[in-house]
Specification:
6-stranded mixed β-sheet; alpha+beta; single chain; 30% strand; SH3 type barrels
Length: 125
Amino acid sequence: MVNLSTFYDLNVYNTEGKFLGQITEVVLNIKKGRISFFKTKALSQETKSGGIADILRNSIRLEQDDGDTKELMTMGTMDIPYEVVSAVGDIILVDQNKLIQYQNDLKVKEDKNQQVKRPISATRK
């Protein structure tokens, strides 16, 4: 058995070695008794957590005199289904090919939903 809290703030990488973000939330499927999704906060490589120095730097925002501040904003969130996870340990490793396939399938579903929701304008004369 694994505590869900061990997943929080783990760094997520794909099989090509690209940093994808950090785990912010674990979504469970109660009926099946397993993890459905990891919600990941997409961060740039420079803002990922690396220890106490990063915690202090990210919790206190200091501006330099020349106005050149480092961007600390996140780029968004991403849902990662547990089926595309290859390994979990000190990091979470995601199969890049399966993730791309999942994202493509999701986009196709969204496109179909948008087509269904469009009002049909029929003109009769």
